[in-house]
Amino acid sequence: MNVVVQKYGGTSVENKEKLEKICDRIISYVQRKQKLVVVVSAQGKTTDNLISKALEYSDNPNKRDLDMLLSTGEMQTVSFLSMMLNDKGYKSIGLTGEQAGIISSSIYGSARIDAIYIDNILNYLKDDLIVIVAGFQAVDRLGNITTLRQRWK
């Protein structure tokens, strides 16, 4: 199976208008019968804003809890993009790092990918769904959410 993987970073997904352009690009690939996995980041300054917010609640946030918080930024983008594509009549599904099968080390804030189990992604692609995956996140072997590079002090 030939699969196109696209990655969109924070500024390219920062608002609805930019997500509309990404939808158009994705749809152009689907119309050419391409299977797509789209990896997205949090919108704009979401990660920075979440870090600032965490520091309002804690002088020294626990890194495990911070990883869980920061992972929500990517999940928002995944959900928005998948909803928009489905509204346009293009079947898609959003996946967290865990749902995408991304397994990492347990180093909170700067985990490394140990394995990617692609069966879930492949099953959705076989069902002709566009797969939208949350970037920047994974889970360790105990199911703890991790982020894949350090974004805070």
Quick synopsis:
The protein is built from four helices and eight strands; from the N terminus they run E-H-E-H-H-E-E-E-H-E-E-E. The chain is α/β, with parallel strands linked by helices and 153 residues long.
Supply the key terms.
single chain, alpha/beta, Carbamate kinase, four-stranded parallel sheet, two-stranded antiparallel sheet
Question: Could you explain how this protein is built, in words?
Answer:
By secondary structure, this protein is α/β, with parallel strands linked by helices. It has a single domain (3-147), classed as 3-Layer(aba) Sandwich (Carbamate kinase). The chain has 4 helices and 8 strands; from the N terminus they run βαβααβββαβββ. The protein has helices at 16-31, 46-57, 63-87, 119-126, and strands at residues 3-8, 35-40, 92-95, 102-104, 113-116, 130-134, 137-139, 145-147. The strands form 3 sheets. Strands 1-2-6-3 form a 4-stranded parallel β-sheet, with helices on both faces. Strands 4-5 form a two-stranded antiparallel ribbon. Strands 7-8 form a two-stranded antiparallel sheet. A hairpin with a 5-residue loop joins strand 7 (137-139) and strand 8. Helix 1 crosses helix 3 and helix 2 runs antiparallel to helix 3. The longest helix has 25 residues, at 63-87.
